[in-house]
């Protein structure tokens, strides 16, 4: 607190001293006798240099440091009168009153002009080093805008064509009032038919030309927009698919779909549309300013003097509007999430009768959106009102000029959506997929070495603790243990859905992450307890990701998975549709197709995570027989039905994220440890199945 007061006192002292010294120098310059134009300019520039040096010295002595913003303020302030005076003399061969006399009014005027110019500059083009959040976000918006424009590169020919038609439309449009005036003049004065028809003809031609050009311009812009939007969507989708599993657990589905559907469209559309309006207005402005300059340059400058005020208002408005627009987008994403959750979990909602609760949740989110939108619209209303009041005061060209700054602001606002899209697009997956290793021969020897792991969504709970495990080629290892102790987590790590925080997982003595992503997922295949099928045919689902598979290979895999017979009984056999999410098949049939999908890859490491839970005894036996026919494969089985894994070469009991026991069924039964107890419990609970 004391430090703050001291800084304020320093600043006030520096300001008073700077003003006093500056005023003294200003009045002192009046005592210097000058002769001729050269003398006049020498006095002017020497006085500017002295003021600059004096103000710099005061700032350095009292404030100690020298921020870039202060250098700019002092430079503009010291040099502005000299630049103005020299410019007026060079271009208009006139002297300004202020250049001649040391008058307090002139000093005040130059201070006002400097403060206005410096403020406008600082707000419109802020310094990168300055940390103010608003300025940073402005700069970010500009960078985003440039990035969106770069992304539109393939559409530049379309844009160029649109620009040509745009220019034509504006030029034609500018000529129409001229000929309308001629028609009115002819009708009001002496009527001459040939001249009247001539004016009418040109008026019609320019009107048609303007409409046709405007139509072509619009069409080309629309083509550009749809092509850009498509590209943005594809890029974003690709970026999403590359993210690690943890990302999808942390990011809500509504957020992802909202970014993909709404933000990408907004980004492609708004930026392009604004570019369209911006260019049109820009061409009009250039035309109008040239016309005005040819009539009176002084009047033009007078009119343009209002630009800094327009800029300031626009700037303040943009900052608030952009912040609220981002908040609205986030709330929309959250409302979408609520809808998605309700649709996907409608059975649970119905069975728990929580429709009202879900309705209220959705309603709350809509209310948030409404409140934010009202706030945003209120700001917009005040802004438009301010604009309108000033428009009534000023002439037509200012309207155009304001539209330019307005559209530029609107473009910055629209890149808020682009910001979100790029944020995801640039996100580097936490689990990298850039390994290169693709050995011709893989034994399938897996080693977990002192693995520690916590899920990204729950960093406080260590799920695996110093876990070490070896899976030997050609052997079957069974992971058993109570629920929620980390068995499936081992599988997820082997699949590289997550990266362990400590320790490593080796495949044939090489870290898993050094393997090529596609190669790894061909060699390490998983069949999980809730297999996911995609809409399409059975054949599509079995060969998922392996389009080069032959029908013979597909059938062989299906036979091993005990699926061939039921597939052949279907009306279209392997071409039968499975429905959305495999909804047209029973749970056991889905499971068997998932097993075939894994087997068709001829994996070196096969993981079966609780697959027996949805298979009947007969299917289970057949699948196990088929798997037993692959002697070189490394097999990892997670099972709750302990009877199914008695023949395993190694049984590993996992408890509390650690290996508690390991050995064959006989060894572990003799030991009478946790495995023995687990079996005992199961026998007492469900009769030992
Ligand atoms: N995606 C996740 N995010 C956060 N925690 C998780 C996640 N998946 C599992 N867990 C937690 O990690 C622990 C181990 O889960 P895991 O699924 O590996 O157990 P499991 O032994 O396979 O259980 P089950 O036999 O019931 O399948 C559990 O406490 C679980 O709550």
From TrEMBL:
Domain named ABC transmembrane type-1 is located at 160-379
Q: Which GO terms describe its molecular function?
A: ABC-type oligopeptide transporter activity; ATP binding; ATP hydrolysis activity
- Parts of the chain that traverse the membrane: 12-32, 44-63, 156-176, 196-215
Family classification: Belongs to the ABC transporter superfamily. ABCB family. MHC peptide exporter (TC 3.A.1.209) subfamily.
What's this protein's name? Uncharacterized protein
Main subcellular location: membrane
Q: Which UniProt keywords apply?
A: ATP-binding, Membrane, Nucleotide-binding, Peptide transport, Protein transport, Translocase, Transmembrane, Transmembrane helix, Transport
Keyword Translocase attributed: yes
Bilayer disposition of the protein: Multi-pass membrane protein
Instruction: Identify the Pfam families for this entry.
Output: ABC_membrane (PF00664), ABC_tran (PF00005)
Provide the protein's localization.
Answer: Endomembrane system
Can you supply one Gene Ontology CC term for this chain's record? endomembrane system
Q: Which PROSITE patterns match?
A: ABC_TM1F (PS50929), ABC_TRANSPORTER_2 (PS50893)
Its ancestry begins with: Eukaryota, Metazoa, Chordata, Craniata, Vertebrata
Residues annotated as domain ABC transporter:
446-681
């Amino acid at each position: 607190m004391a430090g703050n007061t001291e800084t304020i006192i320093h600043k006030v002292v520096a300001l008073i001293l700077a003003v006093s010294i500056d005023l003294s120098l200003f009045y002192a310059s009046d005592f210097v006798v000058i002769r001729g134009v050269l003398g006049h300019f020498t006095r002017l520039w020497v006085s500017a240099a002295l003021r600059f040096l004096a103000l710099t010295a005061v700032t350095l002595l009292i404030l100690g440091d020298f921020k870039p913003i202060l250098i700019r303020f002092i430079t503009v302030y010291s040099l502005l009168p000299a630049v103005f005076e020299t410019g007026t003399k060079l271009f208009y061969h006139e002297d300004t009153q202020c250049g001649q006399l040391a008058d307090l009014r002139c000093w005040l005027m130059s201070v006002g002009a400097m403060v206005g110019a410096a403020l406008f500059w600082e707000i419109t083009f802020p310094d990168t080093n300055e940390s103010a959040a608003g300025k940073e976000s402005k700069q970010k918006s500009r960078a985003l805008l440039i990035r969106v424009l770069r992304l539109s590169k393939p559409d530049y020919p379309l844009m160029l064509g649109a620009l040509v038609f745009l220019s034509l439309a504006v030029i034609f449009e500018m000529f129409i009032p001229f000929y309308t005036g001629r028609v009115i003049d002819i009708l009001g004065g002496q009527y001459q038919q040939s001249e009247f028809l001539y004016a009418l003809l040109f008026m019609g031609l320019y009107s048609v030309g303007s409409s046709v050009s405007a139509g072509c311009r619009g069409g080309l812009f629309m083509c550009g927009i749809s092509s850009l939007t498509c590209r943005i969507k594809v890029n974003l989708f690709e970026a999403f698919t590359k993210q690690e599993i943890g990302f999808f657990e942390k990011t809500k589905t509504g957020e992802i779909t909202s970014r993909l559907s709404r933000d990408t469209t907004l980004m492609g559309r708004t930026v392009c549309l604004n570019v369209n309006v911006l260019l049109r207005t820009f061409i009009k402005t250039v035309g109008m300013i040239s016309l005005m300059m040819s009539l009176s340059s002084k009047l033009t400058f007078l009119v343009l003097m209002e630009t800094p005020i327009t800029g300031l208002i626009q700037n303040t408005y943009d900052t608030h509007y952009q912040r609220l627009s981002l908040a609205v987008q986030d709330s929309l994403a959250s409302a979408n999430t609520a809808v998605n959750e309700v649709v996907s979990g409608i059975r649970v909602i119905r069975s728990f009768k929580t429709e009202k609760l879900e309705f209220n949740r959705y309603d709350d989110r809509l209310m948030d959106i409404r409140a934010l939108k009202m706030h945003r619209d209120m700001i917009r209303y005040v802004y438009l009102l301010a604009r309108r009041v000033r428009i009534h005061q000023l002439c037509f060209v200012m309207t155009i000029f304001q539209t330019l700054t307005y559209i530029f602001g609107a473009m910055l606002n629209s890149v808020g959506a682009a910001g979100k899209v790029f944020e995801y697009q640039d996100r580097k997956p936490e689990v990298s997929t850039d390994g290169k290793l693709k050995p011709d021969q893989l034994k399938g020897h897996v080693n977990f070495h002192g693995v520690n792991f916590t899920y990204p969504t729950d960093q406080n709970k260590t799920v695996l603790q110093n876990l070490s495990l070896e899976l030997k080629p050609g052997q079957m290892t069974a992971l058993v243990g109570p629920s929620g102790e980390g068995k499936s987590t081992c599988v997820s790590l082997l699949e590289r859905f997550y990266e362990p925080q400590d320790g490593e997982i080796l495949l044939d003595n090489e870290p898993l992450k050094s393997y090529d992503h596609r190669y790894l997922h061909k060699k390490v295949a998983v069949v999980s307890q809730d297999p996911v099928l995609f809409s399409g045919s059975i054949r599509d689902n079995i060969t998922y990701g392996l389009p080069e598979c032959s029908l013979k290979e597909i059938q062989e895999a299906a036979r091993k998975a005990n699926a061939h017979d039921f597939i052949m009984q279907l009306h279209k056999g392997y071409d039968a549709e499975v429905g959305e999410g495999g909804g047209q098949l029973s749970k056991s049939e889905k499971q068997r197709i998932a097993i075939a999908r894994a087997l068709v890859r001829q994996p070196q490491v096969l993981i079966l995570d609780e697959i027996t839970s949805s298979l009947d005894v007969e299917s289970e036996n057949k699948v196990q027989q088929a798997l037993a026919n692959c002697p070189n494969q490394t097999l990892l089985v997670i099972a709750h039905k302990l009877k199914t894994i008695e023949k395993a070469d190694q049984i590993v009991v996992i408890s509390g994220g650690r290996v508690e026991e390991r050995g064959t069924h006989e060894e572990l039964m003799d030991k009478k440890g946790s495995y023995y107890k687990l079996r005992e419990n199961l026998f007492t609970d469900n009769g030992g199945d």
